[in-house]
C-alpha cells in the first residue's frame, strides 16, 4: 500500500492536484475567456434582447424610468439599506407597485391575473412549461398577496412569489446519493 510521490516537483499555489492525484501547473499567463467576460463593462443598451421582445423591453424600460421618478418624488420615507455597500435610491416595493399598476396588473388594489400572465408572457411566451406552471400556481401568489392593504407591500409580495415560481422552474437541482 502506498502513494506514488513526486519528490522533485515544486508544489506552490499554481499546482493543481487532479482526481488521479497527478500534479499539474496552472497556466496564469493568459486570462481565461470567462475572466475577460467578467472584466468587460455590462451592456445596458438593451440591444442584446431578441427582436421579438425588444419593443416590450423598451416599453418596460420607459415605465421603469417614469416610475423611478414618480416614486422618488412621492415617497419621503427613510430608505432602508438593501446592500451593505450601497444605499438604494428608492423604495423597491413602491417601484414594483408603480410598474405593475402601469401594466394593469394592479388596479384599485386588486390583482388582475390575466394582465400579469400577459406581462410575463411578453418576455417568456416561448417557455411554454414556465407559462403553464405560472398559470397553474399564480392563484396561490395572488391569494397570499391580497392580505396586504398597502399597494407597495402587495406588489412586493406578488413579485417575490412570482419570481420564486419562475426560478424554481429554471433551476431544479436533483441530488442522487
TrEMBL record:
GO terms for MF: odorant binding
Chain segments annotated as coiled-coil in the UniProt record: none
Transmembrane segments: none
Alphabetized InterPro entries for the sequence: PBP/GOBP (IPR006170), PBP_GOBP_sf (IPR036728)
Protein name per the record: Uncharacterized protein
Lineage of producing organism: Eukaryota, Metazoa, Ecdysozoa, Arthropoda, Hexapoda
Amino acid at each position: 500500500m502506498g502513494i506514488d510521490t513526486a519528490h522533485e516537483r515544486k508544489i506552490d499555489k499554481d499546482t493543481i492536484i487532479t482526481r488521479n492525484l497527478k500534479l499539474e501547473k496552472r497556466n496564469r499567463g493568459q486570462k481565461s475567456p470567462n475572466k475577460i467576460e467578467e472584466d468587460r463593462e455590462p451592456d445596458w443598451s438593451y440591444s442584446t434582447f431578441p427582436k421579438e421582445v425588444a419593443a416590450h423591453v423598451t416599453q418596460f424600460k420607459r415605465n421603469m424610468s417614469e416610475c423611478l421618478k414618480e416614486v422618488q418624488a412621492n415617497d419621503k420615507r427613510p430608505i432602508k439599506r438593501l446592500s451593505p455597500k450601497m444605499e438604494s435610491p428608492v423604495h423597491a416595493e413602491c417601484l414594483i407597485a408603480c410598474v405593475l399598476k402601469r401594466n394593469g396588473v394592479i388596479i384599485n388594489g386588486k390583482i388582475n391575473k390575466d394582465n400579469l400572465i400577459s406581462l410575463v408572457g411578453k418576455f417568456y411566451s416561448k417557455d411554454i412549461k414556465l407559462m403553464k406552471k405560472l398559470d397553474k400556481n399564480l392563484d396561490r401568489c395572488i391569494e397570499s398577496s391580497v392580505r396586504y392593504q398597502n399597494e407597495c407591500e402587495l406588489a412586493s409580495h406578488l413579485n417575490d412569489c412570482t419570481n420564486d415560481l419562475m426560478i424554481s422552474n429554471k433551476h431544479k437541482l436533483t441530488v442522487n446519493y
